[in-house]
Predict the 3D structure of the following.
Amino acid sequence: MADKNIFLIGFMGCGKSTVSKILADKLKFKRIDSDEYIENSEHMKITEMFEKHGENYFRERETDFLKNLNGSNPVIIACGGGMAMRRNNAELMKEKGIVVFLTAKPETIYDRVKDSTKRPLLNNNMNVGYIKQLMDSRAEAYGSAADFKISTDDRTPGEIADEIIEIYSNN
């Protein structure tokens, strides 16, 4: 397994980007943030893609990203919050690496994202109740896509990265 990619999935604000940076540094792997990659390749922000082309257009770009992910060296991928919602995306991730589901309580997510304007699904719905509802609707897809599940509540990103490294080394 030590030559496989590591995909970090989970709800927005669960720590995928932060933990992926630490993991990449500790493992000396390249890091790719799928949202940043798609924004760069499309020459527009995700919020613009949602506005101009709709959510489905963006979700298709996520699938394209996974299909085109190749290389001989393993990478750390911080996946967009909705990437694991499509069954074919989950299959592609499992085929190309290990999938780690980072979790957090809705209150933790709210505290982490409440000041962000880069979360199109939360715009006009920035509250714990809506976050919980959206998380609940995604829980089954995240769970079935994941090889491992790690809670990020009350833990440092470094502690989480160390746990992922231990899992990665033993699989």
Summary: Strands lie at 5-9, 30-33, 75-78, 97-103, 148-151. The longest strand covers residues 97-103. DSSP finds eight helices and five strands in the chain.
